[in-house]
Amino acid sequence: MAHPSPLIHLAQLRNRRMIGSLFANTSAASVIMSVLAIGPPYLFGALGLGAAAVGLVVSVGPVIAALSGVPAGLLVDRFGPRRMIVMGLGCMTLGLVSLALTSLHYGLAGYGAAMCVLTPSYQVVVAANNMSVMSGVEEDQRGAISGVLTLSRSLALTTGASMMGAIFVYSLGASDVATASPGDIASGMRTAFLIAAVLTLFATLIAKASHPARPK
What we know:
Distance between the termini: 27 Å
Order of helices and strands: HHHHHH
Strand content: under 5%
Radius of gyration: 19 Å
Largest sheet: none
Structural class: mainly alpha
Number of helices: 6
CATH architecture: Up-down Bundle
């Protein structure tokens, strides 16, 4: 029986890596957008914060993400994209579970602590994912592949806001967010973020399977 050509094996490996990277890219972006969409109603309706306080708390995540961008890239250079994609998605899952559970018991402190885990992990996923994809692409295809990554991330931001927002509203048990009780809002937030955690956990498994470890 003829063995497959090494070139065919390499092409299959690249296709697997591309599929896993695109799934990781869209999952991470949709989840991070759902936090920005669901966070303000939770902070306002369940925790009772004012408009200025809500704006201040919501801005913490983007600030942490901006500050962690360069360190995330250094970690990817040090440990490699495969390991950091899996680790970043795993930490995002942990952050989402913490966001769904600890913030209900510890209020604003729990919410802030979960964001400190979630947003740097997202930056790690983005840096590692970009490096993983672009390092396996021919020079004359890098512009097109970069455009595909950008498109997938943009679509994920849109679907994350709409789909996770719909899950949140559906889980409220009330017809309107404005009339929902703090308990209903907290319950809706918990359901939405636990579903998001399942998504990132699945993305972690896909990333691990599509980025096989190099033989020693």
